[in-house]
């Protein structure tokens, strides 16, 4: 019986060693997404969005390396955002995932799979405490963009000041982490022990610094939309910086008012023009001329729609409409002769 137990223990140790060698050789899913092993779901999602945008095939046409990288990023994201798959991967690596998939992705049943072997070997528990990654504050800046930039697209230079981490005298605890190891407490019996371990790093301090940022304003962006600068918020010692977000607000304009995807403006015409018609153009935001002429009678406060002359829709080739409200300028007084003629014409 003792020989059989020794053989079984040696088999278990061989499994552990082979898993360790495999883990060192292969690039982990965490490395692919450039996040620590204890990354939160939010960190993983933000890292994925950043990398997926960078390596998306639409932005890297003909680049096979980028396409391959994009596939790796998606595969890593799929595993790490599935709590059960991530748990299996953290414990047993890709080999464990393969056996997990082969068993139908189920922890139950009587298959006696890879997880069951390790569970028996370590006394039923290999739960590791998740490493919490500290994150600095997000910074949200209300940014007024001109209607011209929101119509045609443009850039804005923004001056920003933030805390920057600088060297300081002395040493400090850093890179603190929970290390898990197993101690044999009897034949075939092991106890899991968790211990916090810290390194000693040079000390640091915060200093305020300013710098210039170029913010790209995209055509058709709406109020409330945000332009994101990853990890450009407030820094965090032994953590990752928060994000910087510019929240768009439409600046007031002298001629046009924005109403969602539409534009509105007011044009004043004379009473004669209102009665007999007129020829008139208005200069648009990109300086092209819009013909608003009329050959019919125009009533005071009348509103006319000019299709496709509004704001461009964000990330679309479509445009909203332009609504023109006509104000009629009445004369302040009429001579007796003018009154007679008006009566002759309108009476």
TrEMBL record:
CDD domains: DnaJ, DnaJ_C. It comes from the Eukaryota. GO terms for molecular function: protein-folding chaperone binding; unfolded protein binding. The keyword Signal applies. Pfam families: DnaJ, DnaJ_C. Residues 1-25 form the signal peptide. This is DnaJ protein ERDJ3B.
